[in-house]
Design a protein that fits this description.
Elements: H1 8-12, H2 37-48, H3 54-61, H4 65-72, H5 89-104, H6 111-124, H7 139-148, H8 150-156, H9 160-171
Helix pairs in contact: 2-3
Length: 174
Amino acid sequence: MERDSITLADLLGLGEPDLPPSKKCKKKKKVDRFYSEEHVQMALFEVENGISSLRRAAIKFNVPRSTLVFRRSPKFTKVEKGPRPILSREEEDELASWILQGEKYGAPRKYVHIQNWVQKLLNDHPRDNVPFQDNKPGRGWMKNFMKRHPELNAMRSISFEDHCETVRTLFKVD
């Protein structure tokens, strides 16, 4: 194999060797790294219930196999982000239903009413390390509460006419 010209790479030994590619040189199949927690949960569900193998579930839901292996290992623990909530899930759901009930009957709850409800609850059932002054939540807590309960934001957008219509149908006023 004659070459007309020698390059600097050839002189330094950086040229490509004429050896056949080894098994280690095979290109790895790229995995799309955009997968949701929902896809991971569905893949794990199929694996744990014997519907699919680990490999097939990874391919089907476009989740890396290594992620599924790690999630099944005892090393994995799901950690909630942010500070622990002041109210339990049941208490927050009760508060949300109280707010929705007021909206339904045409008497929307004001911020002060919600503050007082939470303050009464915390006074009746004391907790350790409550960050509220006098057990009254601030605006930041209310904002985060609304994020945790998006159904309340939908009720806020109902117009006054809709409330009047609700009252008319409840009391059959013509």
